[in-house]
Structures
1.
Amino acid sequence: MSEYTQLERSVIEQAHQRGESAVERARQRLVTEYEDQLQEHKEQLTQKYQSKRSTLRNELEQEIQQLQNKRSVLALEAKQNVLTELYEAAVQRMNHWDREEQLTFLYKVLEKYRGNDFSLKFGEFTQQHLTEGDIQALKEQFPEMTLVNETFARQGGFVVSLDRIDYNYLYSRLVELSKEDMNLKIVQRIFEKE
């Protein structure tokens, strides 16, 4: 073989090796770029997944909270309805006390006003239970009392007026005051729990 042929083969072989080396470097660079892009794409997908998952979790937690709030409101409304029915029943029960119960309550309250000039006005239901003898006995027991002839329509109980101040003992008002006090205690207990 001639020197020329050997030189030619050597140049071709070097060119071939350089070509293969360049191809290998290009392949490595492409593989690295591909792997980097793949990793970047995975990270983007992971971020999107985490973001979507977080958003869905927040939405779910909000819906759960709304349902819990709604349940609490419905439970409170149900309790309020039960309490309202109980209070209405209490007023009805008091309105229909028998004569003795009406007189016992009346005397107990009027004892507080003994010695003062006061007027007394009955609720319609209470006056219906009292006899003329009961009224006469009241006048004798409390001579400083002035009995008002009118009544509070469709009410039980009475109102004592002393020094232009009305002291309301109508059963509906007494129960309403009790209800307001009870509602305040319920609200306080609810906030204590929270």
2.
Amino acid sequence: MHESFFHEFVGHRVRGGFTIVRLEVADALLADALGREAVARTYIIGSQFFVTIRSGLSDKELSVTIYHEILEAATVASIDPPEGVRNFNEMHSNARLTKRTNNSGESPWRNLIACCNSTGSDDNQVVAKRDAIQIELVKLPGGERLLRLAEPMSGLALERKLDATRSVHEQKEQLLDVFEIALKRAALTVA
């Protein structure tokens, strides 16, 4: 469908030093780790993004979804995201992007890479010493967002529904604090 456009993203580094390793439309039903239907799913491993989007979205829905997935992944994966995205949340982003795509008169495809690259510094740090922690962002059909942290060696996973009115970065930091405490407790139990 839009393979040629998707190829422009693969291998592309976005601000913050993050690389889009995979951007694809799912051939089958897209689901999260617990089997719930999803519109999009992004795995963040270190500074790499693996984005999968369900099929059947319009060009505009696809454009908005890609924008959200990449911007939100960069915000979540950064220790200290730029001020321009630090308070990023779903409601604020939806209003701004809808206005931008409705007023431009152009295809939403044209501005997508520029949008993703206009958020601030190129020297954001990836979550420090947390490369083993996998972050998953999931967008459910009703628009709700889930943030899931997993550590493969321990098998520990923690998930929360994101509050669309609160900063994604702030919510990630709170969940990560709880997750790191749980990892330490799990390590003590095994030792």
